[in-house]
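Hey all, sorry for the wall of text incoming. These are the two entities for the joint prediction.
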Amino acid sequence: MGTLPSRLAGAHDAITSFGFVLAQVCLFAIVFSYSYETVSRYFFAAPTSWSNEIVAYALCIGTFLAFPEVTRRKGHITITFLTESLTPPTARVAYVATCLVSAAVCLLVAWICLQSNLLHIRSEEMLVRVHSIPKIWISAWLTYGFLSSGIYFLRLAFTADDAPETEKAPA
Amino acid sequence: MDWWMILSGSLLLLLATFLSGAPLFIGFLVVNIGTVLAVTGPRGFILVSNSIFDSANIASLSAIPLFILMGEILTRSGSVDNLFRAMDGLVGKVRGRQYVLTILVSVVFGALSGAAMAVAAMLGRSLFPTMMARHYDPRMSIGTILAGASLAPIIPPSVLIVVVATLADVSIGKLLIAGIGPGLVAAGLFLAYIGLRVWLNPALSPDVDVAENQRGLAGKLRSIVLLLPFSIIVFAVMGLILLGIATPSEAAATGVLGSVVVAIIYRSFSFGMLRDAFSNAMLVTAMIMVIVVSSNLFGQLLAFTGSTRQLVAFGAGLADSPYLLVFLLLAIVFVLCMFIDQIALMLILVPIYQPLIQSVDFDPIWFWLLVADFMLLMWCGAMPAEEPYATISLIASAYWFAYFFVILPVLGVIEKPVERPETIEQDFNAHYPPEPAE
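and here's what came out:
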């Protein structure tokens, strides 16, 4: 039986892992929707009315479901040539400081997104496309992504014992 | 507050955050939130969430995960190994064949993958050890691999082109197709450079042998048959776009299906491989998309604070000296590319450059292709100033000069702008000549 913080951290990790699986399902939905649309439109002259919307929503939801997993794996793109030239103790302080700033920014954006979510619920705002859906169904994932990533940055700041791993995105 | 103070203050804060080692998306968010607070106060926070929401819901950006997924499937399934074998057989007995092979594989893999890093990693892992084992020149070998990798973001599909086209609001399909010609011309120039170097110094390439089973016409035919499945992907992506059957994003989705079919044909498909490909593609996508959505407000704030209008006025002042303007714009890219990640730099520069190039009537397709291409070549400059990077940079610079002094003049000859008519009436008369009076 772990302590309360470790159990909370375990629950946070489990939610993130499950969210990441759902993000991959979103990617599958994008592949399926556009493939179906292409075949349906070209071979059967029957374009769908839903593929563009599904793809846009899946991209948004998938991005913010995978966002915390990227943070957990320290996978965000960073420029490290200056921090790499610091001495190890100074580099560690700098790393903790950037994690704390990143946590503060992510949590602030999560709060801003939450205010928008509440506004969407109060005003019953709809996404006006071919098939209208409540905006909150999509915008809520922004709050989840930034909140969870903010918590990961806090965890990284307080558990950091190594330099951040860096990963370069493909150009 | 003056517009230039907001612009320079934002850029300085952005650079400082980037150089502090914080994630790039945090830098954009800090600047955007700071500018909103300075200009409108906390009531403007809604702009931040709206901007993130709107940019995350752009369906055309779905080409990013799809192109990445396509490359992941081809790499993880081992299909790319067949590409090496086939090209190896086709190159045959020529001097400097490993260099030639590197460039040709880069062209084909560039047409299958949208990421320079993926091509550089693939070539470095597979061809570089062979080159060293056969006593090829290390400096020339690394330079050739870097040059080959720089073709990937130009030859479609390209993740960088999708991001640039979306931000600059130009046609993704047109910008992708525009990359085919320059990509092939660049590859031809790289091959000519290799030929010249090897002719001047044969010691650079001591080995011209080909494998026993790849000799003769039968060997060539075997290589062509081995290469054929890749044409499915090239057709599924570029063929569908060129024929007007699918949008770039739809073509990317069919390209993913094509890569699965290719893996099945090569008998290297497995669901475990597919799961890993989806997982990694989603991680890289989230990494890129979070930066894209965080940066989107930057351009809107530039417009909101009046900076865009002033930049256009500045550009109009240089309208009579378009070459000077291009030089200035590229010089900024030249310097910043050494410090800042390419995609992040694009996200900073597009909102600043786009109104400028529109104000002086540059063709946005060719301009952004030139910038994207330029940035990739500057990638070498982002490495520490020590060996082997210093040597790599020297060799990459040679390619860079060939690129600038030959490709652009060639394009200048090929592409003739239509002269702008003085009046609408003149244009109308040119198309519909007035009938002679009877």
